[in-house]
Design brief:
The protein is α/β, with parallel strands linked by helices. The protein is built from 10 helices and 12 strands. It is globular, with a radius of gyration of 21 Å.
Length: about 325
Amino acid sequence: APVLLGPYRSVVAEPISQAIARFNMMEVVFSVRSAEFTDREKHPNIFMASYINNACASIKLDFMKRNGWIKASIVRMAGDYAGPEIVEAEYLKQALLDDGGFALESSHDLMPSEGSYHPPEEDVASVVQELKEMDDKVILTVLNVRTTALFVCEAYKAGLLATDVLVVSGTTSPVGWHHKYIDHTRCTEEEIRLAANGTYGADYFYLREDGGTSDSGKTAEEFSSWLADLPYPEGVKTTRTSPYGYDGMYAVALALHAAAEDGMDPADFDIYRADIGDAIRAQMQKVQFEGVSGPISFHPDGSRNGRTYIYQDVFDRATNTSSRERLMDMYIP
């Protein structure tokens, strides 16, 4: 086949991407988010149906500008931890430094304990104390979910609350993190929710929210119902990146159709026919449609264009639940 859909993880996508480029094939990934795949010299034939992990940097900086927040500190993962937060934090830090309207007050690295996904509690508490002693506080945390919970808990215990500090978290903290990832903290669920109340975050759209029909003929609600009713092998489950897989495959279908209309016959595909691979890649670059996950098109580096948004965490004490209040969204690039 001239196009490969997947794989799921970056460590697998890396060698596959370089191998298939030698055979004039395209690779469309729907869960891989690492910005390293935007290097067109190393990965000339990869397209990402999901958002790369630094896609929210622009909206974070724009949101800060709109509110007059010109000084910021960054708290990020470090060490051997190889999650996407590493790339996002480095990109965000560089964006702050490159933009003349901001001042980077401090940068703090949190290194996970050996064999763990989060740092020691005392390391987090030490960083929180340093931040508390600063006057102007805009804290950009780019942490995994377990470290986010630990950071928020320690901030709560130290009296560092959303009333006097802004925490623009990374994109790794879905709404459910308040009660799913607190077993390693010294906070109760209610304390975690209280601490997070009023903080800000950034995320990508996973399903379009306007109720409109996508170009594939499905609304987001119809897609979700269809996906839930499919027969799955035991142990297989869907994730919130599933819409990206669906839209990625639809993008491939559109590109192949357009290439065929231009005179390319997919049946003639041959690993030695660079002209066919070039034709498919050129059409993938032109793809633009309304997907179940929102508008789809591709940047020249293969990353997805689409919508990101800023939200505020809102805690309802009467029901002990937290929700997101979306404040602004932005089309990228």
